[in-house]
TrEMBL record:
It comes from the Eukaryota. Its main location: mitochondrion. NCBIfam families: small_GTP (TIGR00231). Residues 727-743 have a biased composition (Polar residues). SUPFAM superfamilies: EF-G C-terminal domain-like (SSF54980), P-loop containing nucleoside triphosphate hydrolases (SSF52540), Translation proteins (SSF50447). GO terms for biological process: mitochondrial translation; ribosome disassembly. It comes from Amylocarpus encephaloides. It is found in: Mitochondrion. The gene is MEF2. This is Ribosome-releasing factor 2, mitochondrial. Keywords: GTP-binding, Mitochondrion, Nucleotide-binding, Protein biosynthesis. Residues 1-278 form the Tr-type G domain. GO terms for cellular component: mitochondrial matrix. Belongs to the TRAFAC class translation factor GTPase superfamily. Classic translation factor GTPase family. EF-G/EF-2 subfamily. Residues 721-744 are annotated as: Disordered.
Length: 787
């Protein structure tokens, strides 16, 4: 029976199942696959202790996009991963987007290994790629495998294993036939490869000895002979060096996935070196204002009395009694709308086990949903499960409200309507940060009858991808869709029209500007007095607004940051925030946390639309003052009335600032990294500086976008086997017309719309660039008039 192996090049790969992904040959959304390696039916029974790579492990694999417009897909996947395999193109080397994703992995301290792929293609340069790993990613490359070129200069046929001192040669087209050659056998087969494997083993052991004292002792015990050090000792050392996720040492493997060369050893390396869930740092959780580790909370080591109201504290015998009722805790990191199965919520379980038909409390939305179906995904296919244990990634089908970043808790003493007792009903795992959108486009339904349908479909898209935003322009009535880039919005349009069959069109892509306050305003007090649903609603609030100053001392004891603005709350007569919650001057139904939430929600809503051009307000500092003795009006003062009063007060201060010409416009300025050939460097710099009003920050042969806390590595000290097809015979950087250069610049986003086509014309189709938001900057007079 013949075996069909899916392939990226012909659009049949398992994890790229969306029509847009197969049409473009790129990954757009992350996809999950669960597999066992080694396969369960291939395990070799043994009475002794087997190496890790020979014991079947369950691997939850998530395939993430590489394009900069889909950075959020990478971010939310990194948030729940225990380890990562960074796949590099052996022809292109370390690209600019690789550096961005590597920096994000450093932020989450994720253990990583590198697989240099596509070594079977013309122009592949393993040596150059390895040295770029050291100079651009700021980690020491520990070469575990080297390429095996047939006859030293021929086609790519296998790998040399520096750990096990063997040569592996792949035969046939399916990658299943592998011949293993020892060092002795390599003398006759390929003496050049044997010599290089020995050099690689020596370099690997010496590199590990600099990071691992235990291997240094082993090396000394074997009379400084790297060839005598046991392979298992090297594997254990590699695992110890990368398990902390610092990225200081990076194991490097080689292969060509198109011909299935090096894939099996790579999966063995995943088993050998990457951690299991029990070896990762304990996840952090928050309970209102309290923060602690999840393990400490589940063990009852955290006192809950401070975060509970007095009535609940009297009923609860102890923190342990309450916490013992937590059956499981999970994080929803992705939501997908499946045509056959409905809404699928991807979760990572951090404690306990989520069982089928369990009632799940959403601590972000404070609602309960039932986990009617549990699935284990195989990209677009699924397997039914009865439970999802801790450490696993699975899917809950049919949840109507759960979103990306929500914490889901199963509670044994669960009441369907009320959920767990406070503060456990607020238990939250560290959320997933959503980057701000920078592009937007107008969505025009074909007819008035289609408006409702288009809005409903957009809500489905927003639930799937929180980095998309939808706003309604009050002046024009247009629906505005915002995203991370041109391709991002283009894909959203394709899904809207082709996948969901919406009858609508998308206008030209525009820039999302911001408004800012230029000078401080005088405090304005507003009284909100209306009748809502037949009940009187009344409250008052005082607000003032000024430009945000990082150096200014805090004026109140409670200040938070939201969407680039800072909001300070001042409740007169209340007890300081570090004391027990509550105050004699506050009504029993309005504790301080409730008032804080109401005031913040009102201020955030007012800041979402500026008074000048309806763009969001940015870089402002709002101070809200509330005096319970004069601003509360008995039973008619509710959290919603306080929120409305805060909204009106902030809106009034913004309108006051506009009347005094105190509102300005801000535009997004981007960090742009352009990779180009030396020949194209001059025209690109001239274009950025003159035509686009940007500032060139640096010109580099080697990128250095990784955190400056990591030391710079001299590429001349890095061992790498020579590339047989390199023109200079060396991987060292040298000036010349063929040298790849990087231009780092800051450019207004408006000037970067459609830049890719222009860059390709300047570089003969060879230039690439990525950009990320640097900050919003005030528009000068001429640019503001142009806008």
């Amino acid at each position: 029976m013949s075996l069909f192996i899916p392939d990226v090049d012909d659009g049949s790969t398992v994890t790229d199942f969306l029509p847009a992904e197969r049409a473009r040959g790129i990954t757009i959304q992350s996809a999950a696959v669960t597999l066992h390696w080694p396969p369960l039916d291939s395990a070799t029974p043994s009475k002794g202790v087997l190496p890790r790579s020979q014991i079947p492990h369950t691997i939850n694999l998530i395939d993430t996009p590489g394009h900069a417009d889909f950075t959020f897909e990478v971010l939310r996947s990194l948030r729940i991963l225990d380890g990562a395999v960074c796949i590099l193109d052996g022809v292109a080397g370390v690209e600019a987007q690789t550096e961005q994703v590597w920096t994000q992995a450093n932020k989450y301290s994720i253990p990583r290994i590198i697989f240099v792929n596509k070594l079977d293609r013309d122009g592949a340069a393993f040596e150059r790629t390895v040295k770029e790993v050291g100079t651009r990613l700021r980690g020491w490359p520990a070469i575990c495998q080297i390429p095996w070129w047939e006859g030293g200069k021929g086609r790519f046929t296998g790998i040399g294993d520096a750990i096990n001192l063997t040569g592996l040669e792949w035969g046939g087209g399916d990658g299943k036939t592998i011949q293993n050659f020892t060092l002795e056998q390599l003398k006759e087969k390929d003496s050049g490869l044997r010599e290089e494997v020995v050099k690689a083993r020596i370099a690997l052991v010496e590199a590990l000895c600099e990071f691992d004292e235990e291997l240094l002792s082993t090396w000394l015990e074997h009379s400084d002979d790297a060839l005598q050090v046991p392979a298992q000792a090297i594997k254990d050392s590699l695992r110890r060096c990368i398990i902390d996720g610092s990225g200081r040492l990076i194991p490097v493997f080689a292969g060509a996935s198109f011909r299935n060369i090096g894939v099996q050893p790579l999966l063995d390396a995943v088993d050998d070196y990457l951690p299991d869930p029990t070896e990762r740092p304990d996840p952090r959780v928050s309970l209102g204002s309290q923060e602690c580790s999840l393990t400490d909370l589940l063990r009852g080591n955290i006192s809950l009395a401070e975060s509970m109201d007095k009535r609940m504290a009297k009923k609860a015998n102890s923190s342990k009694a309450l916490v013992a009722q937590i059956e499981s805790c999970a994080l929803a990191f992705k939501v997908v709308n499946d045509a056959r199965r409905g809404v699928l919520v991807y979760i990572r379980v951090y404690s306990g086990s989520i069982k089928r038909n369990a009632s799940i409390w959403n601590t972000n939305l404070h609602i309960t949903e039932r986990a009617q179906r549990l699935l284990q995904m195989q990209a677009n296919d699924a397997v039914e499960l009865q439970h999802i244990p801790a450490g696993q990634i699975g899917v809950i089908a049919g949840l109507k409200h759960a979103r990306t970043g929500d914490t889901l808790v199963a509670w044994s003493g669960h009441h369907i309507k009320t959920g767990p007792p406070s503060p456990l009903n607020m238990l939250q795992l560290r959320p997933i940060d959503v980057p701000p959108p920078v592009f937007f486009a107008a969505i025009e339904p074909d007819s008035l009858s289609e408006v409702r349908n288009v809005k409903e479909i957009l809500q489905v898209l927003l639930r799937e991808d929180p980095s998309l935003h939808v706003n309604m322009d009050e002046d024009s009535g247009q629906i505005l869709l915002s995203g991370m880039g041109e391709l991002h919005l283009e894909i959203a349009r394709d899904r809207l029209v082709n996948d969901f069959k919406a009858k609508a069109t998308m206008g030209n892509i525009e820039i999302s500007y911001r408004e800012c306050v230029l000078a401080a305003t005088t405090p304005i007090q507003v009284i909100y007095d209306r009748e809502v649903a037949g009940k009187k609603s009344k409250a008052a609030c005082e607000a003032s607004i000024e430009p945000f100053d990082e150096l200014a001392p805090p004026r109140t004891s409670y200040t938070i940051e939201r969407d680039g603005n800072h909001i300070s709350l001042n409740i007169l007569g209340s007890i300081a925030s570090d004391g027990p919650l509550g105050s004699s001057s506050l009504p029993a139904n309005l504790p301080i946390p409730t008032i804080h939430t109401a005031l913040i929600n009102g201020a955030v809503a007012a800041l979402a639309r500026g008074p000048h051009r309806n763009f969001p307000v940015h870089a402002s500092h709002v101070t809200l003052t509330l005096d319970p003795t004069t601003d509360f009006f008995g039973p008619s003062t509710t959290p919603s009335s306080i929120s409305s009063a805060a909204h009106l007060a902030v809106k009034s201060t913004l309108e006051s600032a506009l009347q005094g010409n105190g509102i300005g416009l801000m535009e997004p300025v981007m960090n742009v990294v352009i990779s180009c050939n030396e020949v194209s460097l001059g025209p690109i710099i001239h274009d950025i500086s003159s035509a686009r009003g940007g500032h060139v920050l640096s010109l580099e042969n080697e990128g250095n976008e990784i955190s400056s806390t990591l030391p710079v590595i001299d590429s001349k000290r890095i061992y790498a086997p020579p590339d047989p097809f390199a023109s200079t015979g060396s991987g060292d950087s040298s000036e010349g017309p063929g040298q790849q250069r990087q231009v780092t610049a800051r450019v207004p986003l408006k000037e970067m719309v459609g830049y890719l086509k222009h860059l390709r014309s300047l570089t003969g189709g060879r230039g690439t660039f990525i950009m990320t938001v640097h900050q919003f900057e005030r528009l000068s007079g001429p640019r503001e008039k142009a806008v």
